[in-house]
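Supplementary Methods S3. Input chains for the assembly prediction are listed below.
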Amino acid sequence: MAHTAHTVKRYTGIMDWLTTVDHKKIGILYLLAGGLFFGIGGIEAILIRIQLIKPLNDLVSEQSFNELITMHGTTMIFLGVMPIIFALMNAIVPLQIGARDVAFPFLNSLGFWTFLFGGLLLNLSWIVGDVPDAGWTSYVPLANTEYSPHHGVDFYTIGLQISGLGTLLGGINFLVTIINMRAPGMTYMRMPMFTWASFITSALILFAFPAITVGLILLMFDRLFSGNFFNVALGGNPVLWQHIFWIFGHPEVYILILPAFGIISDVLSTFARKRLFGYSSMVFATILIGFLGFMVWAHHMFTVGLGPVANALFSIATMLIAVPTGIKIFNWIFTLWGGSIKFTAANLYAIGFIPTFVMGGVTGVMLASAPANFQFHDTYFVVAHFHYVIVGGLVLGLFSGLHFWWPKMFGRTLYEGLGKATFWMFFIGFQLTFFVQHFLGLIGMPRRVATYLPNQGFDTMNMISTVGAIMMGIGTLMFLWNIFITSRQPKNASADPWEDGRTLEWTIPSPPPEYNFKQTPLVRGYDAWWKEKMDGNKEMTPAEPLASIHMPSPTILPFFMSVGLFIAGFGFMYGRDPFDNAILGFLFNNYIVSIIGLGITFGCMFLRSVNDDPGYHIEVEELEDKGGRG
Amino acid sequence: MSAHGHHVEGEWPHQPENATLEGRNKVLGFWLFLGGEAVLFGTLFATFLALRDQVGDGPTAAELFKLPIVGAATLILLVSSLTSVFAVQALHQNKVKDLIKWLIVTVLLGFSFLGLEIYEFVEYIHHGHNFTTSAFSTAFYTLVGFHGAHVAFGVLWITLLIIQVKKKGLNLVTAPKVYVSAIYWHFIDVVWVFIFTVVYLMGRVV
Amino acid sequence: MMKRWQFSKRLLPLLAGLVLLLSACGREDLSTLNPQGSIAQSQFDLMKLSIGIMTGVVVIVFGLSLYVLVRYRRKPGDKSIPKQVEGSHKLEIIWTVIPIILLVILAVPTLKYVFAFAEDYSKDENAVKVKVTAHQYWWEFEYPEYKIRTAQDLVIPFGKKIAVELSTKDVLHSFWIPSLAGKMDTNRTDSLDKGNKNKMHFDAKEENVYRGKCAELCGPSHAYMDFKVKSVNQETFDAWVKEMQAPAKPFTGDAAVAEVFKQSCLSCHAVENEPKTAPNLKGIGSREAVAGILLNREKASESIDQAKIEDHLRKWIKETDDVKPGNKMGVIKLSDPELDQIVDYLANYKLDSLEKINSGIPNVGE
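Predicted structure tokens for the full assembly:
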């Protein structure tokens, strides 16, 4: 076929980043944006902790405190850790399955930009001054216009809808990528655990995110168009919101933690130089956790008054999740058993994950017991529990994964010594912050309180907790410093910089060329690369002859589609506000701004549909020039 | 555009939508997307079921709904599903003219459905059944309106595809697009069957 | 397996020590670890059981991890390749079955208490019925049997079942007395007062004052939505009911200020038992705190400080938005003499029946 007819613009500089559809670059964009929001959420966390350092502190007002806790939770979950998960999934999953790209490069880019503009919209609330203040759960009636009359919660509903759209697109993209784009021989039961975890997480995203989208739409309709879903006076039902929120919210927890399970599995087996113990039971446990994750949402609602039968059923269902999770924990320990364990920074985080996550797991089982939950619910015990799972589990997992795959993503290895010091700073800080919070809850401190009275036995433990939080902040800064000094080093990471790599990503240069694999590899077993190494091979057997590679064109359309949604969101939010300025009033009150925004989005969709992307080809000569294996 | 002229070079494949990796990705991705859409509508149905008796001072479902109009709308949408099946058959047999013909019929039926729905809504508003009347009315307009918006998007989308097929012909790039639009159309038809049952029939009877 | 048992046997004293440590934690009028009523006691028993099991799990996992990390660390320059083990069905069955057994041990009492706690005492003749209504940011307690209504201080007889019915007038709140019973949400009811009204029951075992809290984010003053439970003996309770049923104490100041009090305060508050939009003031001079959060004594063993009551009332009326931001009272414009007389009236509006408990309960919470 004659391909030379196409000459596609290949951008450089900022335009390259705005238009890229390369999953590796999109992964870096996710990392940057996720890191930015993680930083904002972290500053919010430290402000919360400083406010609580002593009783009756008045660093921030009660209203600001509620804004801080709301934005901390929302930002961390939706805009901090999820995008960093997507960063690793983008950077690594196609490499692990031997694919040249994801299934939908265009949607991949669109997913990133909608996430970013949704997140920016949400955080613009700080600049506008109307900040969401009803908690990340935004329970009604507190989140209704009657009790939260400013635009804060509107930023929440609209910002999360836009960014949630991006997440949903990402989920579909990875499902199709993993189902359709695996290299020859990469059967499902040969996929690395991180790929498996990403697969299940994507499936959970697909089935959980539409529920929260509907919830947010209902709340938005109530707030912006005087709907009655949650308006008790006209027959609405506030408990309905809680059901919808948690039908999404509980799977969300597993959406977050499963990728960390995958990272830990890959890191531990690499640095123990040992095959993952009980691989098939690990896969099975992951699927089971994902499935059960949809059956247990009401354990967040034991005190709502669903009745003893519902409480009993949801208690038992929740306890069941401990079984597959326990299988995973012991499989990890026995992966290390008999291994040759190297304590790299990545591995330290992975090892630190195990006991910390076990702590979060056992308190989870305690919470599952409904009668005892009546005491734990909405206290600092719960705060401790979910931070053990999300920070002690997921964030340690993410740090582990970032240290592990940093050379693959950027071609430079992070400083090991500084990395280990960072681990200890962050890990000790974490334990100080959250271990005492279990006891704060048990001795009677509710969560989400802006301050507390003296003489209740809360003072010392809150002080310890705040000191720990500051240590975690310092740890995060140390990690940033590590990135900074590493970026000044030459790009010299080899293809398999840890020398014990087991999976396909370690067979190609660091960072990989835009087409990933010069020739699609032939996979002959689980731990594909390790198997070849053990058989004495220096590289993978190619599954195809060297031929020109078709690549998708870069495009600016996803960026503008997201800008359109961003504008439309503002239009809807201010559609019924009085304006002093007649022109602004005309534009907003007639929803012209919204129409313009949606027009941009749909216009770009139209362009995308009518203009087929011919893509471009990388010819054999070019491949031979620069495609050498590391 | 030589890269996309595959079908000229060889036989028209039995399933043109699955003949390329891009096509297979598109079809699978779209099925998954519909899985998400099913959750979306499922949540809306659950919401409607939770609030359907909360009519407040507004009219009840039994007072409002007139089955002849809704029945006609149902019939129209079911027939349009059939015509979109014919369109996919034409697609598989590489009969461009038949394909376009059946797509046009589908779009026209879609427009008549929308016309009936708008007429129906206007009637209800005359009877004091507004979006803000009660929890029931809000849930009703949201569920049925979401479906209506999906139909509206569908007719615009298929119209756009008709133009594309006319201009670019039927090939391995346009075939998957037409195919997924047909799955989409069936999906919103199925959703309507549920709406007809849960909202209208149950509203009249239970 | 034998070894495992030996190992757990050595753990038992450790567990016992931990439980001891837990029971020593926190104020007895506030901590879930220091139960003072039968419900909190059952909950604490369940917590001890689950903490015991879970501590065992944690110790085993930590022990195994530590052993593995020390035993199998890589020596410098070690290039050997460990044996690549696929897994072990035997081990996998062990760590599937043992957790299931542990969960069954926890699930049985869980089910028992789920149904026990849900028992309905609202028709029980021996139970004291209380309708709790939450407001931003205060608690209303109505005793339908006695046709009385109070706020912030829930007075109960110890040793008796208290059957509570919960609802809210605005946003969701959650009713929690850590040392007596776990929490329940207060749900909204519709205009006909119909809706998901939660029921719960609890009791206290002795004379004391317990701290109650709102446990559901309800707005800026969520942290200040505290209340107290005054648990008294049956005679005191009966006397208190009588006093509450009696006509209100007349205003003690000038006639002019009495009019101001009526216009400015009684428009929202009540001194009789009728429902109003703001907290009932009957016997406010005998309460544990002003506005639920400005404490008139630190613990029940002390006596209530009259000077504090007056200070707190003054502060509350003058700086209401500082004490509880977002509350609905607003600034009441009063001249100094008016304020003095109103504070004087309220601070001295005492209930004789509570005098004894208010002068300090000996040997409690020491």
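The longest helix of chain A spans residues 62-96. The beta strands of chain A are 549-551, 616-618.
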